[in-house]
Amino acid sequence: MQSLTQLLQESARAHQHLCPRQVLGVRMGLAAGQRLDLPVPQSDKRLLTIVETDGCVIDGLTVATGCRVGRRTMRVLDYGKVAATFVDTQTGRAVRIVPHAGARQQARDYAPEAQSRWQAYLLGYQRMPEAELLNFQTVTLAVSLEKILSKDGYRVNCQRCGEEIINEREVFQAGLRLCRPCAEGAYYQPLALEVSAGLLTEKGSSELLWSCATF
Ligand SMILES: [Zn+2]
Ligand SMILES: [Zn+2]
Q1: Beta pairing partners, 138
Q2: Which of the ligands is closest to the CA of residue 179?
Q3: Among 69, 112, 116, 179, which lies 20 to 30 A Cα-Cα from 192?
């Protein structure tokens, strides 16, 4: 097993500097390996990490667990929480780990030499005993693992927009097989095109898009 220092170095390389939330991510990942009795960082796909925010914590989690979005061993559900659930996909055992509400305050006691709050978190989170830093919840998944992981090679097309949907992420509505944007609304909207002064332009594009000022 790699030491905390080694993992933090690796995380800092990917992140281009070290910050407190990477430390939390590494400590959460290491604690998960211990609780689930799985060797981390993994080289296989047995451990699945479901993380509840994007950002710094993910870089720490990635180096500590070996789980990666690109390998489909990490999923990001953006609840805006520094929290993650770790699932042993062979046994179904799962543990959700969240930093203690008082961890920020306590970090200062473990880093008396720190010159700033930020530095106190950075050092304190490395030194705090696990029980003071992290909170553990044994959980079960509300969605089946089979549904989350789905099958390789599965693909269908949306009956409204025609785009391909993989991993069984389609939904059925009024007898139609639809992608979620078509069924539930998307995070994007196509820009309406309009003809102005004989040229085709995108309505509202100046506010919505970065302009290509160098043209
Ligand atoms: Zn950061
Ligand atoms: Zn669609």
Answers
A1: 95
A2: 2
A3: 179
Pick the CATH number of 4-148 from 3.40.50.2300, 3.30.1330.130, 3.20.20.140, 1.10.10.10: 3.30.1330.130
Taking the CA of 24 as reference, the closest ligand is 1
Amino acid letter for position 187? Y
| Alpha carbon of 75 to ligand 2 centroid (Å) | 22
Q: pTM for this one? A: 0.87
Q: For residue 56, which ligand has an atom nearest its CA? A: 1
40 with 7: CB under 8 angstroms? no
| Extents of the domains making up the chain | 4-148, 150-208
Q: Which residues surround ligand 1, an ion (CB under 5 A)?
A: 19, 56
Ligand 1 centroid – CA 35 distance (Å) = 26
* Strands 47-51 vs 74-76: parallel, antiparallel or unpaired: parallel
Q: How far apart are CA 104 and CA 82, in angstroms?
A: 13
Give residue-wise pLDDT tens across range 7-40: 999 999 999 999 999 999 999 999 999 999 999 9
Alpha carbons 33 and 127: distance in angstroms, whole number: 19
The ligand placed nearest to the CA atom of residue 177 is 2
